[in-house]
Design a protein that fits this description.
6 strands; about 25% helix; two-stranded antiparallel sheet; alpha+beta; about 25% strand
Length: about 140
């Protein structure tokens, strides 16, 4: 089972462009990342720039509309993620619980839909995407 662990740092929604994390926090996080890697459960991970450097594309009325960040209405935003492969939801939560997160951080754990989770009609509609069928990102 694949799970995405989403890091949601409070206050990051208002962070200025170029905001960087504390080196000691990064060092602790790298040790955690290494433990995921050594256990053979880590598939991918990345940190994200603050929303002030991002954009949102909405589709009201079926037409794309681009809004540049920061986003005034944002209460929680992603700071980064890990993609892990484990045997159960409980194991994913256990890994998230080991993270050296600070008081202002939260990790949301979400299971990834596998191709076989979908009914036959949805599988047929997605048949042209072998990466989706294999459950792996392109190039992985």
């Amino acid at each position: 089972m694949r799970f995405m662990m989403l890091m949601i740092p409070k206050g990051y929604e208002k962070a200025a462009a170029g905001t960087m994390p504390d080196p000691k926090a990064v060092e602790a996080m790298m040790k955690y990342n290494e433990s995921l890697q050594k256990a053979g459960v880590l598939l991918a991970l990345d940190g994200l720039h603050p929303p002030s450097m991002g954009a949102r594309v909405t589709f009201e009325g079926g037409k794309p509309k681009v809004t540049d960040g920061p986003f005034a209405e944002a209460k929680e935003v992603l700071g980064g993620y890990w993609m892990i492969q484990v045997k159960s939801r409980e194991e994913a939560i256990e890994w998230a619980s080991r993270c050296p997160g600070g008081e202002n951080e939260m990790i949301e754990v979400r299971q990834v839909h596998e191709f076989t989770d979908f009914p036959p009609d949805v599988q047929k509609a997605a048949a042209g995407f072998p990466e989706m069928q294999a459950g792996q990102p392109k190039g992985a």
